[in-house]
Amino acid sequence: MRDCDLVTSQNPFSTGRFSALYLEALADYRRGARCARRERP
C-alpha cells in the first residue's frame, strides 16, 4: 500500500530520485495498487 497523498505533496521537479519514485507510484496505480487509509480523528 502507498500513501498516495505523499506523492502529490512533494515537488515533482526536486530530484531524479523523486522522479523515479513518482513514476514507480504511477505504475503501481495503473496495476491497481491501493492507497493507505488514513485514520480520521
Q: Could you please describe the fold and organization of this structure?
A:
This protein is mainly alpha-helical. The chain has one domain. The chain is 49% helix and 0% strand. The chain has 2 helices and no strands. The longest helix is centred in the middle third of the chain and has 15 residues, at 16-30. The protein is flat and about 35 Å long. The two termini are 21 Å apart. The mean pLDDT is 72.
Judged by helices, strands and strand pairing, the structural class is mainly alpha
Dominant shape: flat
Helix content class: 40-55%
Low-confidence stretches: none
Q: Number of DSSP helices?
A: 2
Taking all Cα atoms into account, the compactness measure Rg is 11 Å
Element pattern in H and E: HH
What is the element layout, followed by pairings?
Elements: H1 4-8, H2 16-30
Main attributes?
41 residues; mainly alpha; 2 helices; 0% strand; flat
Give a quick precis of the structure.
With 41 residues, this protein is an all-alpha fold.
